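Obj: model holo form, ligand = glutamine.
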Amino acid sequence: MSKLPNTPTSIFSIMSQLANKYGAINLSQGFPNFPVDQRLLSITKDLIGKNVHQYTPMNGVPSLLEKIALLTFKNYNRHVNVASEILVTAGATQGIYTAINSFIKSNDEVIILDPSYDNYEPSVLVAGGKPIRISLNDDYSPNFNRIEDAITKKTKLIILNNPHNPTGKTWKESDFEALEVLLEKHDHVLLLSDEVYEYISFSHPHISINTRPKLRNKSIIASSFGKSLHVTGWKVGYLIAPENLMLEIKKIHQFLVFSISSVSQYAISEYLDFVDFNQISKMYLRKKTLFQNLLKNSQFELLPCEGTYFQVVNYKQISSKGDTDFAKELIVNHGVAAIPISVFYKDLTDKQMLRFCFAKTDETLIAAAEKLNEI
Ligand code: PMP
Ligand code: GLN
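Output (holo structure tokens):
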């Protein structure tokens, strides 16, 4: 009777629970442990006494929608229609789930690029669709031959995630050019672009689907204020999509949640006037460099990290164990929690890799590195 008979509990819950149980330093689940900006806190405190506690309009608080449109224009030079092309969601998770369930019907195929973030496949399965999981190249860049081979008449959607969780890979100009050629040829296919790490790109400025006129009219883009404003627990994200797609998404959204937490929306709306989005990559670049330097003499081999706040490492020199077992051992015996990469593959491909989250205070990163260097 289960709709998801083969879907386990999310690895993020499992690893964070284990980290808590054993008192390990938690570099597993992706959330910052540094303090939230005082300005956001004081805006929120001031708001609590005001008239902000009832349902908001279904799309989102009007001032927040205006500011999302402004942000999209400033960063990507795209004019989005405030009334018809933006939807505020309970985190990107609900946005992605809703988008998938708005378009995917029984037997529709959805191409997912592995390793892939864990909420894509279950959302497709609940919709009755068929996830078609294809591996990225060994360096985690997209392989367009494989993608094209997987496209059929039943293909409804391709999901891409850039910058990429868990690998930290980012898409290049040439990747987008190839995608444009492909989707021109297969024009029945829609795109869902998960860009929750859009403001954490190190190697080059983030290339958003918002900046691609050939793609954006067939795309739904997911963003997350949880990630961008360091408040993952607030669960505020948003979707941008052309009106014809957004109309369908809103039909589902109105019966899934109708509207999302009012106070968070008003607070974020006010706070956005003070956020310098250019600082986010700079702050995380400093943390990435710190963490990489701290581990440079360890037995872990560090993979390139072009974006996101995740550092992938290879532990082949330390152990021959599978990555899930090794991740558990790392918690129990060495006091540091990480995420095994194999869980992001359909076939659990195990390349003996772990993902560490470096969205942490310097003290936390130093303490974790000390433990990791002892191994
Ligand atoms: N997509 C990716 C790639 C993620 O890493 C996450 C986790 N933040 C989400 C979507 C979900 O975002 P949110 O926390 O806003 O629901
Ligand atoms: N996106 C976060 C990560 O990759 C986890 C979010 C969650 O716990 N669902 O770690």
